[in-house]
From TrEMBL, chain A:
Name the record gives this protein: GINS subunit domain-containing protein
Residue ranges annotated for the GINS subunit domain, each copy included: 47-136
Family indicated by similarity: Belongs to the GINS1/PSF1 family.
Gene3D superfamilies listed in its UniProt record: 1.20.58.1030
Taxonomic path: Eukaryota, Viridiplantae, Streptophyta, Embryophyta, Tracheophyta
Coiled-coil region list: 33-63
Subcellular location: Nucleus
PANTHER family the record matches: DNA REPLICATION COMPLEX GINS PROTEIN PSF1 (PTHR12914:SF2), PARTNER OF SLD5 (PTHR12914)
Keywords: Coiled coil, DNA replication, Nucleus
InterPro entries: GINS_A, GINS_bundle-like_dom_sf, GINS_Psf1, PSF1_C
Organism this protein belongs to: Hibiscus sabdariffa
Domain DNA replication complex GINS protein PSF1 C-terminal: 148-199
From TrEMBL, chain B:
Domain GINS subunit, chain residue ranges per copy: 58-130
A Pfam family of this chain: Sld5
Keyword Nucleus attributed: yes
Protein name in UniProt: DNA replication complex GINS protein SLD5
Biological role stated in the UniProt entry: The GINS complex plays an essential role in the initiation of DNA replication.
Organism placement in taxonomy: Eukaryota, Viridiplantae, Streptophyta, Embryophyta, Tracheophyta
Amino acid sequence: MHGRKAYELVKEFGSGEKGHLKIFNNELFERVIEECNEHHNALQSLIRKMQEEGLEVQTAKNADHYGALIHHISLIRNKRCLMAYVFNRAEIIRDLAWKVGLLHELPREIQEKFSDSEEQYFKDHSKSLKLYMSQLSLDVNVDMVPPKDPYIKVRVLEDLGSGIILSDKSANFARHSMHFLKRTDAEQYIARGLMEELTG
Amino acid sequence: MASSAGEWSAEQIDDYEALISTTDVELLKKAWRNEKASPEILPFEEALVKRAKEQIQLMEETVDDFEESGHDPLIVSLYQMDLDRVQFLLRSYLRVRLQKIEKFMFYIWKTDTYRNRLSIEEEKFTERCIRDMGKHLEETVLSKMPDNYQSVLKQSVISEEDDMVASRKPCFNASLFLKDHVQYIWGYDLQNMRGKFPEPQLDTFVVAKCERTTRPLYLDGSRQSAGFDSRQVAIRTLFTV
């Protein structure tokens, strides 16, 4: 049935948790593309048939004309579904770039879900943002939350080793150690799950 | 500022408040608030951002000096907090704009009104966004589509206008309410009350505080209004016909 596979693709995207990506459904994607090409072939053969019969394609309102129209409409619907799928995933990827930090390695579970082109898009977008920030010489992706205290207490969750340079001191981040850090320094690590904030 | 002995006239109070409200921090706050609340991108406050950056730098140097000279640590941390808050405002302002650009990149680029509102760096950023997105869509979808169906902006070659998903525009459905000084809502210049009228529905309400006595605004100009007399939180909505 026309458009059913494309519908499945979009539904799959919509049924996931908001903001979470599922693995890129290559198989279904390819099948929709095949369907598009089939529609196109059918469309072209119908148009050729009409032209052979000497009928004006735009105006002759016979069965072939409508058949061709239906193929054209199914084709653009499939195109819309595919584009929507890719476009909306790209939106989620951009949000990840903001949250997790630019050009940093994403955790592997997330990385697996990208297609190759999406990985490239993630890198390109991060580069774009980094370039903007360097042109302004201002880091736009720290301070994501309005600051309540300039310094916060954090506990280190993973072993980060020593020699991490912070803005006012360098510290040895062994696992489970607690530190009193400047908020802007700690934010990146917290967002990547390497540290947690201790409140209260 | 004529006044009788020792008393502040209403005019003086207004003047004082007008003066306070033009400090850079207030202007930055206002710009930030406007940007956050409006679905479309607003004109870039270039001079304001430049001044804010300079002042932030000055503050940072002052704080560093104080720390080194062993100044009272309480004062130092107060200055530091103030500095952090201004920095947050500036960064958030720029961030909100960038996120709007990311969301509506094709539409902003195509529409001159919005395109002219970008700063130079933002223009370059938009160009790069469009290039990256175009490349990504090409590789995944468009190159595999039959000829005549390969455009990013049009569904197919016979489409009369750019009707693809990517060129959607911001949703103008929110009704907004605002403080007296806010200048723009959905492309309206409030002082002149001219502008295009997208079809708003009463989807969201924003509560705002009035700084002085105002009257309700009826956009169709049809009704006279009673005055409000006190500085309270006023909840008002825009009704459109």
